[in-house]
Amino acid sequence: MSAVIGIAFGNTSSSIAVANVDGKVDVIANPDGDRAISSTLSYVGEDEYHGNQALSQLVRNPDSTIINFRDFVGLSYSEIDAETSNHSALPIDINGQIGYQINDKKITIDEVVKRNLKQVKLAAEDYIGKPIEGVVLTVPTNFTDAQNSSLKKISNDAGLKVLQLISEPSAALLAHLSADEERFQKDKLYVVADFGGIRSDAAVIAVRSGILTVLATAHDLGLGGEKLDDALAEFFAKEFEKKYKSNPRNNRKAMAKLKAACIITKKTLSNVQSSTISIDSLSDGYDFHSTINRLRYELVTRDVLSKMAAFTEIVVKKAGLETIDIDEVLLAGGVSHTPKLASNIQFLFPESTVVIAPSLDTKVIDPSELLCRGAALQASMIETFDDSEIEEAFKPHIVNTQHIQKPIGVRSVDGSFIEILPKETAYPIRKTVLLKGKGDVLIEVYEGDRTVKETTIEPEKQSGDEDDEEEYSDEEPETIREVVYVPGEKLADLALKGANGEVEVILDINKDGKLTVSGRSGDVTVKGSI
Amino acid sequence: MSAVLPSLPSGFSGEFKGHKKITTPLRRPVEPVGRYFLAHASRTIRGHTWSEYEK
Ligand SMILES: Nc1ncnc2c1ncn2[C@@H]1O[C@H](COP(=O)(O)OP(=O)(O)OP(=O)(O)O)[C@@H](O)[C@H]1O
Ligand SMILES: [Mg+2]
């Protein structure tokens, strides 16, 4: 087993993974058996608690329990909204830095993050059985350079040497693509939508010849699983109040208990159709016992779930695209277990777009584990490079690359456009396709123009029974829209004489943007450049 | 079921005709992840050609 690991450090949970020699990835559980380890620290007397043990202190010791601190990394106190943690320790200003007052001691955000990472390191070393030599950490795409360098420094101080920071959506997509080598070979446009505890993030990513390019990103820092917990807690609070004429909302401890129970109920409803909730002495000494089914839960949380689904459309628009341009939507983050969220998203995209979520396909990678798995894969890939090589590889002149803005391909005899290099392909690039052609043939190289083909499907009529037809007359015919590229501007013509039935066409764009077209059939080879 | 190339028009002379350069490209960062990126990086750093890489 490798001694380099991947860590997804979220505001809600941290998860760790390690890649084995055979390319398989293990997600590491901490000694408590948790794979999603709460990013929480709690101080009770002289003791420090971490993870889910710390999270359970929110009921008894909210003021000395620190949650949702990841996004504070590298920021100063004036840059944050301290109201975000009103049911836990509140961030305070320590000489301009963000920190917390725990009992009578002050602790800075850097120290909090460091302690969280140290615990994560311990869990990983406990599992692997040797010291961790390096780590790839995931970060949101809107982390600033200052935040990135601050996180690196803190991680190094915690004894976790950072090999690389990679973006969360790319980590998720890397894990998904690596699960099946064929996926990497296929040029596709993805939306990666990540629904976490307190935020939602999305990115449109082009995969071209195995290279990933982010075309657009979107962030909603006020939309996440906690909003679902709040909606459910309010629903149960109402029920409780009606039953016992006692209001739990004014009681901080009661609400903490209720919310903790709601989180469990919410997760349960991702797997089964109904769930019970049970809280001893919730408020004024009354116990609370109730059940809720999935349908009711989906009604209670309808607004939040609709907003999350709509969020995936926003990022597509930001990329200057339509939903019909997207091949696959990869759902990441804990909330992506929610069946209704996946089906809402499926509804917004055309049938041709594949939505990847556990409720739609049981074989997909757990969305809670996509990020750490991708980070672990990346860590194992760069493990053998030395520091200077790694540093060189991530320099701007390597990473900043030209991308073609229109697809390039050839025209077939029926006038259609055969795409060879899709738009947003980074170059230098070389790609070969095999076409049919016999005798003297013409290879016409075109850029493709995007068109939208509309097909109207009349509603199905009830067969045989004419009397019923009236009832169906209000059904609208359905229009299916799809993107079709057609030959636009011609770039070049290449004549190939004496083709034997199969013609290999090779497009090569060098780093200076020079396009070379080659045709080969049997031992006849022709080529030209523009 | 691959596409079929048109036959060479009778009046076509010569072998290659370039008509237009590719549309202005856009420079933006690629994500530095995955083995295809690492291959891209080492090609660029070491100045490897495609044929060297394909060996
Ligand atoms: N099976 C499940 N069904 C529904 N929700 C779940 C499930 N598992 C986890 N969640 C929810 O997912 C959220 C946490 O997701 P995740 O671990 O991806 O967040 P994070 O990345 O740490 O946080 P953030 O993205 O806000 O920084 C929580 O609200 C949690 O309750
Ligand atoms: Mg997250």
TrEMBL record, chain A:
An example Gene Ontology CC term for this record: cytosol
Provide the residue span(s) of the region labelled Disordered.
Answer: 453-480
A GO molecular function assigned to this protein is: unfolded protein binding
Per its UniProt record, what Pfam families does this chain match?
HSP70
Q: Which family does it belong to?
A: Belongs to the heat shock protein 70 family.
- How is this protein named in the record? Uncharacterized protein
PANTHER family referenced in this protein's UniProt entry, alphabetically:
HEAT SHOCK PROTEIN PDR13, HSC70CB, ISOFORM G-RELATED
